Amino acid sequence: MTETQVGTALSGVGVSARRPDATLKVTGEFAYASDLWLDGMVWGVTLRSPHPSAWIRSIDVGPALRTAGVLAVLTHEDVPGEKFYGLDHKDQPVLAIDQVRYQGEPVALVAADHPETARRAAAAIVVDYEVRPAITDPRQAREVVRRQPVRVGDTFEAEVVVTGEYEVGMQDQAFLGPESGLAVPAEDGGVDLYIATQWLHVDRDQLAPCLGLPPEKVRLTLSGVGGAFGAREDLSMQAHACMLALRLNRPVKIVYGREESFFGHVHRHPARMRYEHGATRDGKLVYVKADILLDGGAYCSSSPAVVGNAASLGVGPYVVPNVRVEATGVYTNNPPCGAMRGFGAVQACYAYESQMDRLAEACGLSPVEIRVRNAVSQGDRLITGQLIDSPAPLAAMLRDLEAMPLPAPAEKDLRALPGGVSQTTHGESVLRGVGYGVGIKNICFSEGFDDFSTARVRAELMAGEPHVTVHTAAAEVGQGLVTIQAQIARSELGVEHVTVATADTAVGSAGSSSASRQSYVTGGAVKAACEAVRERFKGLPAREALERFGPIEETREFRHRPTYPMDPVTGQGDSHTQLALCVHRAVVDVDVELGLVKVVELAAVQDVGHIMNPQALEGQIHGGSAQGLGLALMEEIQIRDGRVLNPSFTDYLIPTILDMPPMQLKILENPDPAAPYGLRGAGEPPTLSSTPAIAAAVRAATGLRLTRVPIRPEDIALFDTGTTRGATDGNRARSGRG
């Protein structure tokens, strides 16, 4: 029996293997980080700044200390080690020292025997602030995080030229499980932290210096993660819980409420972008100029990588011989921004795809045709000069998408119209539009980052049966990684009984559960460790080998091919590991009187290289598309003068099951020869292309330019509903019974 046949028979690679956590999550029995409990534990609470920018004149903790049940109150003076941390640059204080730079910045900590007691005590702390003007407009920012140009060619004249200015609002990851964790002091003077995170080892490496401890005395174990999407890459309550636990020599639990969660993690960078596209009369691109401004907020976080992605992918998956791109990230007094699904590439994708639609209109071509004529393919180069050395069948993907059947006209059932059961319309003011979007996303970390993962695999007999244990530090954040690791072990070793151990820092780093990288990098490490174990089987079946040799354990690291930093002047360089493509078609119904939009259907074509788990893959495409829909139509953290106006799920709107439409999917398998199993990371690409496709469909229905997402009702309803808005007959049709 071949390895592939073994894998299929044993729920290995390529099969929709059942998730080991599925039943517990469906029944509500799964233990998330907020469910952690230990006898004798106390509760920690964070006092946060109400101001986006202010000097701290003094902090009086006396009233909090006098509150019955309070055990400790800590400020920056109590930080036992280094006072600053950060993912890319150590610029963020553990607790504010002499100033605050954004609303919600942590100022003091309280531990008490009850969470309500801790909250009341925190509110009693008296902080004397000297409020100062806040810099909230990124165009007025004085400090730059990173500026990355891309320069190619010298021809910037063309027969057809279209320009546009575009804006993307601040999106929140909106995970359902709030930040939470439990810190437990250890007998050796260290601390054990049970935490919902995306990156155990980098958490540890930031924490240890701040706690004044060697890394080996800061041990992290992954607890149940209720979603992440990039927001858990940065520290939140980790250092605070550990400080309190070490001070009190007692376990300390911190759990954020929903409002505090909005202040306690990074968000998607808002963007302002100006683009100019030049082309021949038949639609072939001659040049692109782009100026991309990203608001990084108060601290650095992962802004440098976001800027790099926006610059290198700033014109999309199109052949462009002449390029002038300038991507810049700046500091402001807005909330810190960092990683969110598709970071950097999402913002640019909305702008360049909007431009491609304008170019199609100017050249008299369809939205699909303009993209096909300029689509990259294997053998072409990115604007950074990097060769696309694996399949990239973008033109064929677009033709496949165009050929998919369109949904039927709107039903007479009012629930199928914008506004739904609210009966805001009977169809008389509803117009239908169709739009397309294309996105290209880098997979794994880029620009020379030492991106690797470690896996330990142990095979042994248990109750007479071969059993395999896979141990990595890779964070399962809901994407199904534990399932994939077990599938790989079954395929490689031909053993049905596989356990994936809880992720922790007792094994080597697996890097972050971000950048769509874990199936590639940790999957590669598990595969390599399994191959090493199989070699020690000496060609014998697993049971016979283990009976003869006893338990077999191997540890392996896996690194993808090297990447290199972008040139700081020209932007040239092989900066990315792998590239993934997804294309979307959106069909929307728009009530042009009330500005309400219903997404009727999304269709998508994505090349994933090799399908590891069909059901999990479809879930990733659906989920990424849902977040793109949210950015297109409803999701935005509203900021006024640096203050968050809507830190709740009452006022920050995310798509529900009633907002997500049916989806048609076509999944292609064109293997990447450099990747394990030929796979391509699949989680992020759908988030890119769904947003511009939906925006394009709304434009097609209304004829409005709509240069900002999310599109708000007032962006549509404040305008005349006549037919002089520039929509083409091919993309616009009246819907419903009107």
Automatic annotation (TrEMBL):
Transmembrane segments: none annotated. SMART domains: Ald_Xan_dh_C. Residues 27-133 form the Aldehyde oxidase/xanthine dehydrogenase a/b hammerhead domain. It comes from the Bacteria. PANTHER family: XANTHINE DEHYDROGENASE, XANTHINE DEHYDROGENASE SUBUNIT D-RELATED. This is Molybdopterin cofactor-binding domain-containing protein.
